[in-house]
C-alpha cells in the first residue's frame, strides 16, 4: 500500500513538474482564468439550487394529497386544484429560469477557459516555431520532418486539451462536489454515503478503459500515418512505379496496410461498444440505490419523497463529472508526456552559437586558415587543413572531383556548421564573431540542391530583397541577369505563375537560374555559386557568365564547379582534392603544370566531344 502511494506521488510529481512550464501562461491569461473559475462556480450554484425546486414541488403534492381527497365533491376542491396548478406552474417557471441562468454562465465559462487554452496554444506554437528557426543544420539532419510536424500539431494539441477542457472539467468537478455533497449531507448523511458508493468504481473503470482506448487509437493513428505516407510516396513516385511496372505489388502492399488498419479500428470499436453500456450501468446503479435506500428512509420517516427525487437528480448530476474524472486524469497524463517532449525540444541549444558582436565592412576578403571539418553525424572528414585566401573583389573558381569537399566549403562559409579546427575570416574577422544575420545577409548563396517555395516566380526571385523594395521591374531585371526572363514570359501568368505542386513544373535548368536570380536579389558583396550551371546548356551558360561579368563588378565571387569553363575572366582557380587545396593558379598555368586540373580538363574535353 505504501509503495502504491509512493508510486502515485512519484507519477503526480513528474506530471506536475513537466506541466509547470505552463504556469506562467496561467498568469499571463489570469483574467480569463479567474473569470473562468468564477463562471464555473456560479453555474454550479444554480445547478444545485434547481433540484431543491423539484423537492418542494413534490413535497407540496404529497403533503397536500390527503387534504385534497378529503375535500372530494366540494367547491373547495376545485378551488384548491386551480391554485395547485398555478403553484406547480410557478415551480416549473423557476426551474426553467434557473436552467437558463446556468446555461448563460456555462457559456461564459467556455468563453473564458476554452479561449484561454486557444491563446496558450497559439503562444506555444509560436515558441516552438521560433526554436525551429533557431536550430541548426545538424538538428535537421538528425530529425525527420514528420516528427517535427507532429510536435507542433499533436503535442501542442494535447497540451491544449489539458489547459482547456481538462482544467474546466476539473474545476467544475471540485465546485460541484463541494456544493452537492454539502447539500446532500445536510439533508441526510447516511443516504449520501450509500448514494456515493458506486461513483469511485465508475471513475476508476473509466480511467482504466480510457487509457486502453487512447493506446489503441494512437496505434491506429500511427498505422494511418504509415498508410498515408506510403500512398503519398507512391503518388509522387508514380512515374517510377509505372515505368517499372510495379503497380500490382505496390497495390498488394497497400492492401495489406489497409487490412491492418481495418483490424485495429474494429478492435477499438468493440471496446467502445462495451464501454458505453458499462458506464450507463454504473450510473443506473447509483439511481437504483438512491431509490431503494431512499424509499426505506421515507417509510422510516427520516426523509421526504421530495428528498428522494432531489437525490436522484444530484446523483445524475454527479455521475457525469465523476465519469469525466477518469477522462481528465488521462488527458493530463498525455499532456504531461507531450509537454515533456516539448520541454526537451525547447531545451536543445543550437550547436552554433550566435553571440558575435563584430560587424566587418564586408569588402569581401575571404580567408580559410588551416580549416578542418568532419561531419558530426557521419564522421566523414570533408576538409583537411584547408588554406586559401580570396582578396576582396576577386573571382575564384573552386574546382574538384565529386566529393572533394566543395559544397562543404560553401556551407562553412555561410556558417551552417563551424569548423572543428582552424579559422574562417571575412575581412579579417572570425566568422564566429560576426552576428549570423549580418554574415548571411552579406552572402548571396546559390546552394547545390535548389529549393524553391510553392509561391509565384516573382516571390521566389525576390526572396532576398526586403519587402519594400520588391517590384515586378526588379524581378525582371534579376531574371534578366540569370538569363531566365524570356522563359518566364512564356509561362501562363508570367512572373505571377506559381511554382511547384499546384503550379508549373520547372526544368532543372530553370530552377537553377531562378535560384541564381534569387541570390542576386540580395545584392550582397559576396557571391557563392555552388555548381549552379550544371543543368544548363553551353549557350545559356555563356549568356549567364556574360551577365555575371556585369553583375560581379566590385564583388567577391566564389564559383564552385566540376566543369571547367574558360569563358569567365577568373582571377584564380583553386583545385580541391580530398578536402585540401591541391593546386592553384590561372587556367593556362594549371594546364601547363600538367597536374590534376589538366587531367580533369582533358577528361572533360573528351566527354564533351563524345556528347
Ligand atoms: N550533410 C552531410 N553529412 C555527412 N556527410 C556529408 C554531408 N555532406 C557531404 N558529406 C560528405 O562530405 C564529403 C564532401 O562532400 P561535398 O558535398 O563537400 O562534396 P562536393 O565536392 O561538393 O561534391 P559534388 O561535386 O558532388 O557536389 C563527401 O564525402 C560527402 O559524402
Ligand atoms: Mg557539392
Helix and strand layout, with pairings?
Elements: H1 2-19, H2 23-28, H3 30-70, H4 75-134, H5 137-142, H6 145-187, H7 189-196, H8 198-236, H9 238-243, H10 247-300, H11 305-347, E1 366-374, E2 381-390, E3 395-400, H12 406-413, E4 421-426, E5 429-430, H13 436-441, E6 443-446, H14 457-461, H15 472-481, H16 485-490, H17 508-520, E7 526-530, H18 538-551, E8 556-561, E9 572-577, E10 580-585, H19 587-593, H20 596-610
Helix pairs in contact: 1-11, 3-4, 3-6, 3-11, 4-6, 6-7, 6-11, 7-10, 8-10, 8-11, 10-11, 15-17, 19-20
Bound molecules: adenosine-5'-triphosphate and magnesium ion.
Adenosine-5'-triphosphate is lined by residues 141, 375, 377-378, 380, 382, 400, 402-408, 448, 531, 562.
Strand content: 5-15%
User: Main β-sheet: number of strands, strand sense, barrel status?
Assistant: 6 strands, mixed
Name of the CATH class of the largest domain:
Mainly Alpha
* Assembly state (oligomeric): single chain
Order of helices and strands: HHHHHHHHHHHEEEHEEHEHHHHEHEEEHH
Gyration radius from CA atoms, angstroms: 37 Å
| Mean pLDDT metric | 83
Helix segment tally: 20
- What form results from the Cα inertia axes? elongated
Structural class: alpha/beta
Tell me the CATH architecture of the largest domain: Up-down Bundle
